[in-house]
Amino acid sequence: MKILIAITKSNFGGAQRYVYDIAASLSKTNDVSVLCGGSGLLVEKLSAEKIRTISIPELDRDVSISKDISVFFQILKILKHEKPDVLILNSSKIGGVGSLAAKLAGIKKIIFVAHGFAWNEDRSAMQKFAIKCLYSLIFLFSTKIIAVSGAIYEQGRTLPFAKEKMEVIRLGIDAVSLLSKEATRQALNISQDAFVVGTLAELHPIKGLTYAIDAISLLSIPGLEYVILGEGEIRNELEKQIAEKKLSDKVYLKGFVKDGAKYLKAFDIFLLPSLSEALSYTLLEAGLAEMPVIATNVGGVPEVIENDVTGILIRPKNPKEIANAIRLLYENKEKSIELAKNLHDSVTKNFSLKKEITELEKILAD
Q1: Where exactly are the structural domains of the chain?
Q2: I want to staple 91 with a disulfide (CB 3.0 to 4.6 A). Which of 6, 8, 206, 207 is the partner?
Q3: Which long-range contacts (CB under 8 A, 24 or more apart) does 205-209 make?
């Protein structure tokens, strides 16, 4: 089967991780190519797996009518030349231009993967309405819609053209290659004696990092450090907050770290303070790393974290609850170990990449 997988950006966030995983798995028995904007880390990783990539430099997340029209015709030309049996679209931008181009190019099977919905972000009512209209068009042109979590399914099925096309295939993950606690702390320049709360995330408002930093200011735990691995658009805002709260000796922005999951052992607690999540790879990675997890009760997070069983769930935008949860795990080592073990067992059993690919192949074969 000839499969073309398309995504807007070529960095290596959650959606790109999904594209990499399914491309690497499906390429074992199919002719797989990936179309994306730019030539970022995703392209580098796919090239290492000898998977062909098609780059459109003008394709990016920002809206530009002239550029987007150009991108549309480039995609249309590529689809007519490639003639894939299946087109798998990831992200709203490529979903919009790609699904229309695919329809005009006569592609019979168009699959859109919903990794999350942009209307969950802090936007005006008018913007949210426009975004829902865009997704409705994507759903109209798609022959199948995959939701990466039950929460995304419940949101998406309320839109026109979704109910009969939508199906849940939860994210899966392979074993994570982990460095030792000592090695990770040395590599990240973290004190071996510190009590470290850590987050692996893009520096983006939706990740709720400002609330996590506020929580750290409420705690007086000896040796406490909060380490954030990731880069993004709100770095300056976070640096200003850290300075204003006088937390420069407790909160550290370490920037983007390639293959960040292998450094998870540097943390004593993994914190995910997001305001919205579809189903986070970092939660699954933290589970395989046997980390005790504190996460906000949003989106697909409760499908991974059962409160007080596989982690601690808190309300979003609530620094006090974050602080209380950190204090609880700091003071109760046995509880921390129990939650970490339970999460590891759950992720291993319920969120394997093999299971995800098997379910995806059934859709491709229909």
Answers
A1: 2-172+352-365, 181-350
A2: 8
A3: 205/121, 205/122, 205/234, 205/275, 206/120, 206/121, 206/274, 206/275, 206/276, 207/273, 207/274, 207/275, 208/273, 208/274, 208/275, 208/296, 208/316, 208/317, 209/234, 209/238, 209/273
